Amino acid sequence: MTDSKRPRRIGVLTGGGDCPGLNAVIRAVVKTAHYQYGIETYGIEDGFTGLIDKKIGPLTPAKVSGILKQGGTILGTNNRDNPFKHPVLVDGKLTHVDVSDKVLKTIDYNDLEGMIIVGGDGTLSIANELSKKGVHVVGVPKTIDKDLSATDITFGFDTALQTAVYSIDKLYSTAASHHRVMVVEVMGRYAGWIALQSGMATGADVILIPEIPYRIERVCEDILRKEREEGREFTIVVVAEGAKPEGGEMTVAKRIEGSADPVRLGGVAFKIAAEIEQIAGKESRAVVLGHILRGGSPSPFDRLLATRFGCAAVHFLMEGKHGHMVSLQTPRIVPVPLDQAISRLRLVPPDSEYVATARAMGATFGDGK
Ligand code: F6P
Fold first, then answer.
1. Deepest in the core among 12, 214, 221, 300, taking most CB within 10 A?
2. Which of 46, 121, 145, 205 is catalytic?
3. What confidence tens digit (pLDDT) does each residue in 356-366 have?
């Protein structure tokens, strides 16, 4: 694959939902490759779609200069395309085909000795499949949900938490003025870390997370009791998009077939606000923060972690530690096998000290405890 006269070359792509810090990773990859190893980096556009449609080109230190502070990803991303289940229309009917060999050819044609693939569990599962087909892959974990178990934390979460806290803080005055219940929905499909930590950091009265199913009657009883006990007439509820009632399901907004995780959530806050109005007789409003949490300039913590991850990913690739993901095991960045990295989600343990502390502050999870 390598021609000795040509500079060596690696590729980088961002897949899945965007999050603050992706550009800091891209910058770190390009700079480490250039300054430490004298090799070129090619950027792949729009996640795996770019490898299928050959949307690929050189990234230089000049091209990544100034992107450290930018939200989103200059490469574009995609959380629909999967080379092992690529959507195509056959006789007007949508089917999914395996185009992974085409992806391998694109990598080979562009002389990419290795790929740095930045993404969450869905993207890293695909990266793992490509690694099993012989591609030299190093994964970089990203998710605002903080739900990957193989790393202490991912970049994106800290910025999302700050945005959530800033937004929820603003709802207190309007809730108090109107004597209302404000139900704020934050992201977090399987893991309720953003809801739990933003709820705790703003002193929310009700925190609903996927890991602790709620009963709406209990939520209503707790709202009325706490308002009485604390002598006020407003309540703040923070709910993770993936929260579900006991024996019930998550609120699914739509499904995107072929995507590594086809379910798209959203709207649970509207359902809960309507139920509170009906059962507790309290005027309620729903606010969905949603993708606002994924936007904006990364916090200093996220810039640093993303830079460390991008730099370490290049080192691991050059040291032959492919088939691995970079992981923060404080204080070190270490390689963990991709198989292991995607095998388990980091969920909020219902008996954790965090949950116990929230309960001690008088917050309810709607589970009667
Ligand atoms: O996984 C990160 C995440 O932000 C989830 O919390 C959310 O369910 C999902 O991405 C939303 O994805 P999309 O951008 O397709 O709406």
1. 12
2. 145
3. 999 999 999 99
